Amino acid sequence: MACNEDLRRARSSLAEAELARRPSDRYLAAHIAALRVVAIVLTYRAPPGTGRVQGRPRNAWQMLAEVAPELAEWAAFFAATEGRRDAIRAGATSIVSAREADDLVRDARAFLRLVERAIGFSTVLERPIDVASS
Fold first, then answer.
1. What residues have CB less than 8 Å from 71, skipping those under 6 apart?
2. Suppose 100 and one of 5, 44, 96, 120 were both cysteines; which one would form an S-S bond, judging by CB atoms 3.0 to 4.6 Å apart?
3. Number of compact structural domains in the chain
4. Looking at residue 57, which CATH number applies to its domain?
5. Residue 6 contacts residue 39 (beta carbons within 8 Å)
6. What is the pLDDT of residue 133?
């Protein structure tokens, strides 16, 4: 199921964000995690064909606000972080502080938990790693 894969990817990006040493890397991974959470919501809520306007891809945060109005504040919040995300992707490494990166990681995790509860997922879906068989 695609949604389970999106959930796994979002959790993986959050784990990457938590483990990253540089604030810019944490910030970028947290933003990517939040985008993957949006993919989960859109899988459940968006009608087919919602992702394109005149052949061009649409902004995920705008689509989220349209298909899940109760998440519009989250959409606006994460949309406001796109400028920094783009700067980090372009190579900026000192554009965010450790505090800002940590805050975004925490916010992305809260967003994921909110969506998991709304859709009916739980942390039970996370499988512990069996160290003995490694």
1. 41, 64, 65, 114, 115
2. 96
3. 1
4. 1.20.120
5. yes
6. 39
